[in-house]
From TrEMBL:
This is Isoaspartyl peptidase. The keyword Cell inner membrane does not apply. The active site is at residue 220. One of its GO terms (molecular function) is peptidase activity.
Length: 354
């Protein structure tokens, strides 16, 4: 009898020893998009408004982690705060397609199981991040798109809204401006066109490059988190890019491009010119550099964002987090809405380069 008790005690002690507690490492990092975000472009009121939503997102996610919730639950909560705010290009406030519609993309991934879920081009799901989680948890698939994804979300009991819910005047005006610029562009002579040809590296035709001029503020939202169980998770949600063509899908819902999480390496969420992020397989490339080349989180994320992406003209940035709670938030654009909160509640929100 005594021996049995002793054995049970030993077993309990060894289980505790092997299941490391990460409570003092819990961390949450968010972004609200990168792009031409400079002090000159922002009023103090706008700055305060952005900071308030970003801080709220950090707090919501942090509370979940503090209470022993999972990194996935924290990512979902933080992203929902930003999806529900008209300030960001995700959920309410998403940008418009060239047809004047809102088509939303989102994805999630968890680092211990490598499970992932994504939706692309949904038009009626209030919180696309929830739909991505539902695809991961309740379907045999990783990605669902368009009408099917909207229907699936409805069947899952998620909140469905009329497409007009996503409308904001600011984004609609941005579409009109982007369209006007396209028009102006068409009026250029060949000579003027070639003088203006600024981004040959992107491999896009000048006309295509211009489509995204207005999208120079990439207001996508994303979150990466580490929970007390030592599990990483990542999520990204977006309306895509202003004036995108119908059916266009960016990097945000593509696992390995806009989102990736692996306990062996890191969790990453990206924001920027999606086409270039897909071609650079940004999020997985950062993870692969850590796994195969043994680079640190900082080295890997900076190599991809500040060198590899820059070389092909890919503007934007990432947030990245590893299992030790190391944070990296590199971006090659003028600004990136970003912030983090650590186990002790220390938080910081930043917008500009300096
Ligand atoms: N990456 C997003 C996309 O291309 C845009 C963004 O980051 O704002 O759809």
């Amino acid at each position: 009898m005594k021996i049995t008790r002793l054995l049970i005690l030993l077993l309990a002690l060894s289980v505790k020893a092997f299941s490391q507690d990460y409570s003092d490492k819990i961390t949450l990092v968010i972004h609200g998009g990168a792009g031409t975000i400079t002090r000159a472009n922002m009023t103090p009121e706008q700055e305060t408004a952005y900071q308030a939503v970003l801080n709220n997102a950090l707090q919501q996610g942090h509370q979940i982690l503090k209470k022993g919730g999972t990194s996935l639950e924290a990512v979902e909560a933080a992203i929902m705060v930003m999806e529900d705010s008209p300030l960001f290009n995700a959920g309410k406030g998403a940008v418009f397609t060239s047809e004047g519609k809102n088509e939303l993309d989102a994805s999630v991934m968890v680092g211990n199981t490598l499970k992932a879920g994504a939706v692309a081009g949904v038009t009626t799901v209030k919180n696309p991040i929830k739909a991505a989680i539902a695809v991961m948890d309740n379907s045999p698939h990783v990605m669902m798109a368009g009408k099917g994804a909207d229907l699936f979300a409805k069947q899952q009991g998620l909140q469905i809204v009329d497409p007009s819910y996503f409308y904001t005047e600011t984004r609609y005006k941005a579409l009109q401006r982007a369209k006007a610029e396209e028009k102006v562009e068409l009026d250029h002579t060949e000579n003027e066109k070639s003088k203006l040809k600024k981004a040959p590296k992107t491999g896009l035709k000048y006309e295509e490059e211009l489509i995204f001029t207005e999208g120079k503020k990439f207001g996508t939202v994303g979150c990466v988190a580490l929970d007390k169980f030592g599990n990483l998770a990542a999520g990204t949600s977006t309306g895509g890019m202003t004036n995108k063509k119908y059916g266009r899908v960016g990097d945000a819902p593509i696992i390995g491009a806009g989102t990736y999480a692996n306990n062996a390496t890191c969790a990453v969420s990206a924001t920027g010119h999606g086409e270039l992020f897909i071609r650079s397989v940004v999020a997985h490339d950062i993870s692969a550099l850590m796994e195969y080349k043994r680079l640190s989180l900082k080295e890997a994320s900076e190599l991809v964002v500040m060198k590899k992406l820059v070389d092909i003209g890919g503007e934007g940035g990432v947030i990245a987090l590893d299992r030790n709670g190391n944070i990296s938030m590199p971006f090659n654009s003028e600004g990136m809405y970003r912030g983090y909160i650590t186990a002790d509640g220390k938080s910081e929100v930043k917008i500009y380069k300096d």
